[in-house]
Design goal:
With 650 residues, the protein is α+β, with helices and mostly antiparallel strands. Helices cover 44% and strands 25% of the residues. The protein contains 20 helices and 22 strands. The strands form 5 sheets. The protein has a 5-stranded antiparallel β-sheet, sandwiched between helices. Strands 7-6-10-9-8 form a 5-stranded antiparallel β-sheet. A hairpin with a 5-residue loop joins strand 14 and strand 15. Helix 15 packs antiparallel against helix 16 and helix 17 crosses helix 18. The longest helix is centred in the middle third of the chain and has 54 residues. The structure holds adenosine-5'-diphosphate.
Length: 650
């Protein structure tokens, strides 16, 4: 018997019955309604039951062959007697039937223990005492059982899941308090034990009552299925429901439903999902903002960058990356020192200052070379700003780099032009005063000589020839000045015309020099003729003008006298003519400008002669237009040698 009865750990009335039955080694266990909870198969056979497992069937149907037992059990179920005994004469069996009570005193059912009846023996003297001992044992067992049962009951009621057990007759055979609370079922309702009624009472609480009822009812039919689903209630609670078949041995005798309130869990899950969603959306928005920011950053015509406190680039735009000669992606996470090693010693201290003082540095002028344009100095206006969170914590440094190279160059160009313009104005003013002075200088003696001539003529005396010569000299001087001015303006206008004829150099130089009269006894003029004939092509008059100018200058700038020496020689395919003097010489720094318009060397006035500074300018133009070159070798107080070369005729 003890091996046949299942031992369950939960404490529904049903289970309690089984427990009591097991403890009593009962052969038959029935519930309060007289339905078989467990029955020894031997007894079922003895009772004449031929069907499948008798569990769940009413006992009067199963115990048809043992009416005395039915009667004994009925008596026990009436609860009026603690112990009942009955026996059938034909079966030679007797039974002790014990009513079983719940914790609250309600009768749960009854257990019957059957014994084979021994043939009647003479009653020993002490028989009444033996009977008393047996009853006392039974009572002890019952108390023990009741204790265990109450423990099981308490456990059953203390679990957080609501549990209900429904048998095949749709009667509630067990439930705990939690189940009753969860579904708000009254004690009266539970006393009725009708699963249908309890279902009808609970259904309005759920959101989808029809489906709820349908599902529960479907499982009133015995099934091996185990279900698990979620029931949502109108008041917001959410139950997780599980149902499993209730078995006794191989037989299904009902179904156990358990409900777990997962509202808080569900809410937490929903909240977590909401937070995740919110976080996801926030991240999306952040990424959108970054995309917008990057678009602005990358299309900005100025360099923009953001560096962390460790001076590593966190964000940088194309313009700034291009200055470093890199792509944006290459710079992220790299330090200033790595990216711009040459500028880093300047930049880093400034950035650290911004981080330490939390104060921006605005509009610093920087000049340097960058890898993108090596060898080319570039200029920037750079600002550094502290980047703070709303709470004031410094995240890093923002760098704004505005390239001002073009502006600087334009500015330098303007300055240069301005200086040139000022210089041109100064030169013009100088020239005007010099020109006025130069033009006026010959006029005074000219006027004097003319007046003398007039006086002589008016007095009827012959005009003295030296007055005529002096007057003519001044006129010649004036015409040289005027011709120089005219030639200069022709050169400027590109209108100086040249003829072209072969010129034998030796004869040509001789001829030009023959016109010179040495003006003072301090000077002498020498011509070192070439040993071979040298013929050039050119404009005789203009080349004579060049030679004359150089020889005149040689005299003019040798106020203390000396020899003026001319040479002509071949140098490769050129003839080189040189005019050497022993005069005041020319400061070295002035020599490069000698052939410019209106230029007069710093030491020129000490020669005592005036001049417009046009002669050498005209000479250079004439020589260069003949395909030649003109240059000077000189030193202050060491005399000067002017050379010009012209291509020889082959
Ligand atoms: P000008 O003699 O009318 O001033 P030039 O063009 O002929 O103009 O000469 C330009 C300048 O070159 C002179 O003012 C003078 O300073 C310098 N120069 C020319 N020739 C000589 C020379 N032989 N010795 C020293 N300085 C000379």
């Amino acid at each position: 018997m003890s091996a046949g009865l299942p031992r369950l750990s939960s404490a529904s009335p049903y289970e309690r019955l089984l427990q009591v039955g097991a403890s009593l080694h009962a052969t038959l266990v029935v519930d309060g309604l007289g339905r078989i909870v467990w029955m020894d198969p031997v007894l079922a056979g003895a009772a004449g039951w031929r069907g499948s497992a008798p569990v769940g069937h009413r006992m009067d149907k199963v115990l048809g062959g043992l009416p005395w037992l039915t009667q004994a059990v009925d008596t026990a179920l009436a609860g009026t007697e603690g112990l009942c005994e009955g026996s059938g004469r034909e079966q030679r069996l007797s039974a002790v039937v014990v009513p079983v009570f719940g914790e609250d005193g309600t009768q749960l059912g009854a257990c019957a223990r059957l014994r084979t009846v021994e043939p009647p023996k003479p009653m020993p003297a002490r028989e009444p005492r033996a009977c008393t001992v047996e009853i006392a044992e039974e009572r002890k067992a019952r108390e023990h059982l009741e204790q265990k049962t109450s423990l099981l009951r308490a456990t059953f009621d203390s679990i957080t899941d609501g549990v209900v057990v429904v048998d095949l007759e749709r009667d509630i055979t067990a439930f705990n308090k939690r189940f009753q609370e969860m579904w708000g079922l009254t004690d009266e309702m539970m006393l009725e034990r009708s699963a249908e009624k309890a279902l009808a009472s609970a259904a309005p609480l759920v959101k989808d009552p029809e489906q709820f009822v349908r599902l529960v009812q479907r499982r009133f039919t015995p099934s091996l299925e185990e279900d698990s689903d979620i029931v949502e209630l109108r008041d917001g609670r959410v139950f997780e429901r599980k149902s499993i078949p209730q078995r006794v041995g191989d037989a299904i005798v009902g179904r156990i439903w358990s409900y777990r309130d997962v509202t808080a869990e569900r809410h937490a899950q929903a909240e977590q999902a909401r937070l995740l969603g919110a976080e996801h959306r926030a991240r999306e928005r952040l990424e959108e903002s970054f995309a917008v920011l990057d678009t602005f950053l990358n299309h900005a015509p100025i360099g923009l960058g953001f560096l962390g406190r460790d001076l590593r680039y966190i964000r940088i735009n194309d313009a700034l990356a291009a200055l470093h000669g890199r792509r944006r992606e290459e710079e992220i996470g790299r330090t200033v020192r790595e990216m711009t090693p040459r500028m880093a010693p300047v930049i880093e201290p400034l950035m650290r200052q911004v981080l330490e003082t939390n104060t921006p540095i605005i509009g610093i002028n920087m000049t340097g070379e960058v890898p993108a344009t090596p060898g080319e100095p570039r200029h920037w206006q750079v600002s550094y700003y502290p980047v703070r969170t709303e709470s004031g914590a410094i995240l890093g440094v923002g760098a704004v780099v505005v390239e001002v190279t073009k502006e600087r160059r334009a500015h330098a160009e303007r300055e240069h032009l301005l200086r040139e313009a000022q210089e041109a104005i100064r030169i013009r003013d100088d020239f005007l005063s010099i020109a006025a002075h130069e033009l006026k200088t010959p006029l005074t003696p000219l006027k004097l000589h003319l007046q003398m001539m007039k006086g002589q003529a008016g007095a009827g005396r012959p005009v003295a020839p030296h007055h005529v010569d002096k007057a003519l000299t001044q006129v010649a001087r004036l015409s040289v000045l005027v011709n120089d001015l005219l030639d200069t303006s022709r050169i400027q206008a590109g209108k100086l015309e040249l003829s072209n004829e072969p010129i034998p150099l030796r004869e040509f130089i001789r001829e030009v020099l023959s016109d010179f009269r040495v003006v003072s006894t301090l000077h002498s003029l020498e011509f070192e003729e070439p040993g071979e004939p040298l013929v050039i092509m050119g404009d005789r008059g203009r080349l004579a003008q060049v030679l004359t100018n150089l020889v005149e200058n040689a005299f003019k700038y040798s106020p203390t006298g000396g020899t003026v020496r001319l040479t002509a020689r071949r140098e490769g395919g050129n003839a080189v003519v040189s005019v050497q003097d022993e005069g005041i010489g020319i400061p070295e720094d002035q020599q490069a400008h000698l052939f410019e318009r209106f230029f007069r060397a710093r030491n020129a006035p000490i020669s005592g002669f005036g001049g417009l500074g046009l002669g050498l300018f005209i000479c250079r133009d004439i020589i260069e237009r003949h395909g030649g070159r003109i240059w000077v070798e000189s030193g202050v107080e060491r005399g000067s040698t002017f050379h010009f070369s012209l291509p020889l005729v082959e």
